[in-house]
Amino acid sequence: PAVPEGMLTPDEVAFALMDLQQNDPMMRNLITPDLTGVVLIIFPNQEKVREDGAKAMIASLRETIAFYQTDDVYIDITGPPVWTSEMLNAAVDDQVKFTVWGFGLGALIALLALRSFFGALIVAATPFLAVMWSMGIILLCFGSFSFLTIIVTTLVLVISFAESMFFVFNWLAFWRDGMEPNKAVDATVKLVGPAAALTMLTTFVSFASLAITPGQGIREFSIAGSIGTCLLFVCLMTFLPLLLKFAIRLGFKAPPRSSIVLTAPLPVSWFLASRYGRLISILAIVVTIVLFIPYGLIKPHFSFEDFVAKDSTAITAAAEIDEGVGGVAPLYVRVPLIGNDPNIGPVDYEKVRTVHQIVESHLGQNKVISAASMTNYTDSGFTREEVFDAVGPFMRKRFVTDDGSQALVTGFMPTIIESDVLKELVTDLQADMRAAGIDDAEIGGFRILTTFATDDIVTGLQLDLTLSVLVNIGLIGFAFQSFRVALASAIPNLFPVLATIAWLYLTGAGLQLTTVIALTIAFGIAVDDTVHFLSHYLHSRRDEGMTHIDAVRHTLNRIGGAIVATTIILCSGVIIVTFSELPQVALFGTLFVSTLAFAVVGDLFILPALLAAGGKFFEPLGRIGVRMADEDPT
User: What whole-number distance in Å separates Cα of residue 354 and Cα of residue 357?
Assistant: First the structure.
């Protein structure tokens, strides 16, 4: 046997391990220098894994090693199947946590904002229905939740709360102004409906734009988010109005006016807009333009451990392996051969040996195996054919293909390695092989694949973000039939996204997978408040006959509290995501909340200042007017 059996004393074990470490090209990479640990590399039966699933394989392995576990012997397993299993388990835990806490926080904030228990129940009913529908559709389409699709239900939840709050705020405003409550529902549908349709469309575009980038997980997220957005709008415009009329029949009374906490920023906002509107507008435009610089300079960044659950035992085991034997994450180099000799002829052997030496010069001595690492056997008189026959048909394929057309050089590197370091390693290896006259060798491996593929995906997502911004701003201009309105919406909504990207650039975090997704979706949602503000502003101008400056002030007072309330709901509902067991999901929550925080500054301070300062520019606005219903309530 490759590993001696029947050893009875620690000295015999130590001697056997030392002999293997010094003489066996495979084992020297798997035994720690101090002989306190051994790494076993397992090649699963893929057919059995496909039949029974990776979860069953991992359970079987754990059952096997449990027999050998003692107080003195510690055994654990690691590798991509274990990482994926831990990720899925964390995703399931997050799903329950996000839904329960998001719903609870949203309902509590609605209660504090409306100061009415039954009012809070009305606001919370629509999000509950939208989330249940969305969860059902995701399970129907994809069978289970991934670490990205779990975020969709949370986003549907908080967006539903925000839009429901907007609807109820407007309904109560009409009711308090003296309108009959049933007619106030109809009036709210006619006023909020078009704006809600536009906000849902901008959010839909943000989700749908992600489908352009390849990647199953991203496409599932895109599809689930797009469907959830449509379901949300259906619930908002059908279920909520019917629920309000049902509540009126049951005797629901208008609650007191909104909490002063929600309206506290409004006097400050109006004071700054009316007194310093031009100065604030110029500063906002200049700052937004300057923020395009980090947007153009920021680069993709990938860290593998960010995709694995916190406190992962598999990552801990991988780190211990890295510390013990210097890592066993494989880096493969495929070397085309010209002799088509299964035993590798002299010319091809020199090519393999050259590649072997180049890889070893970068990874360290004894960190590479190939046909060129068997010199201790060939120098003892064995032929390469005899050595290959001795290792068996399976292990033989780790060195050369059966037809002798390709050889494999395998290097072992740390599992935990920064993407920039890995990319530099690949670049150096390619340069050294070209310098040696070897242009047809190809480098691969799981870590190589994930690093470079993620960079390509992030670059694609960055283009999706740009496309989403341009399309959504264009949609706003088209819907209001005015390029002036589109320009007014651009600065308040570009500012939060660019400010968050600038923060990422200055902190050195770079663009990651969920980073760009968070910014894309956050932009689509941040636009919502701007659309509602502009819709009310135009309604005040066209249908209520107010002057430009009075319309700005009236709109700010009318829906400013709703903007604050919805932002608090959105941030509070998503902030629970920052406590996810998955670092990438937690990062999504952090960036989403920070972008929305910047967005509320844009909607309450920058947008009113732009409108107040640009009175003459915004005078000839589009021809679409939001007409109120004068007929009897339906």
Answer: 5
d(Cα 170, Cα 190) in Å, to the nearest integer?
A: 11
Helices marked H in 436-510 — which ranges? 446-479, 483-507
Give the 3-state secondary structure of residue 74: coil
DSSP structure class, residue 342: T
How do residues 194-224 score in pLDDT, each as one tens digit? 888 888 888 888 888 888 877 788 888 889 9
At residue 623, the pLDDT reads 47
Say if residues 543 and 52 touch (Cβ distance below 8 Å).
no
Compute φ and ψ for 577, nearest 5 degrees.
-65, -25
Query: In which region does residue 555 sit, left (phi positive, over 0), alpha (psi from -120 to 50) or beta (all else)?
Result: alpha
Instruction: Give residue 621's pLDDT.
Output: 56
- Tell me the β-bridge partners of 408: 334
Q: What is the mean pLDDT of residues 523-528?
A: 78
Q: DSSP state, 177? A: T
Q: How far is CA 352 from the centre of its chain?
A: 41
Backbone angles phi, psi at 443, to 5 degrees: -105, 135
Question: Which domains are present in the chain?
Answer: 10-81 (no CATH), 82-307+450-613 (1.20.1640.10), 317-449 (no CATH)
128-132, 346-350, 487-491, 605-609: least confident range: 487-491
- Own/partner contacts of 622-627, CB < 8 Å, gap of 24 or more, are 622/480, 622/481, 622/482, 622/485, 622/538, 623/481, 624/479, 624/480, 624/481, 624/538, 625/538, 625/539, 625/542, 625/543, 626/190, 626/191, 626/194, 626/535, 626/538, 626/539, 626/542, 626/543, 627/190, 627/543
Q: Which of 477, 486, 425, 481 is nearest to 451 (CA)?
A: 425
Query: Which residues, 6 or more positions from 329, have their beta carbon under 8 angstroms from its beta carbon?
Result: 318, 412, 413, 414, 415, 417, 445, 446, 447
428 HSE (CA, 13 A, CB side)? 12
545-554: average pLDDT:
84
**Two structure tokens written together for 78:** 């690691």
pTM reported for the whole predicted model: 0.70
Long-range interactions of 347-354: CB distance < 8 A, separation 24+: 348/404, 348/407, 349/384, 351/407, 351/438, 352/407, 352/409, 354/436, 354/438
Alpha helices in 177-264 (DSSP H): 181-209, 216-234, 240-249, 260-263
In angstroms, the CA 336 to CA 63 distance is: 41
Which tops the pLDDT comparison, 55 or 513? Answer: 55
Alpha-carbon distance 546 to 554, whole Å?
9
Q: CB–CB of 378/387 below 8 Å?
A: yes
Average per-residue pLDDT in the chain? 82
Q: Which of 564, 565, 566, 563 is nearest to 536 (CA)?
A: 563
Other CB atoms within 10 A of residue 216 CB: 10
Is 308 in contact with 88 (CB distance < 8 Å)? no
pLDDT in tens, 254-309: 777 666 666 778 888 888 988 888 899 999 999 999 999 998 888 877 776 676 76
Residues 305 and 311: their CA atoms lie apart, in Å, by 11
Answer yes or no: are the C-beta atoms of 29 and 20 closer than 8 Å.
no
What is residue 622's predicted lDDT score, i.e. its pLDDT? 39
How many Å apart are CA 624 and CA 163, to the nearest integer?
Answer: 22
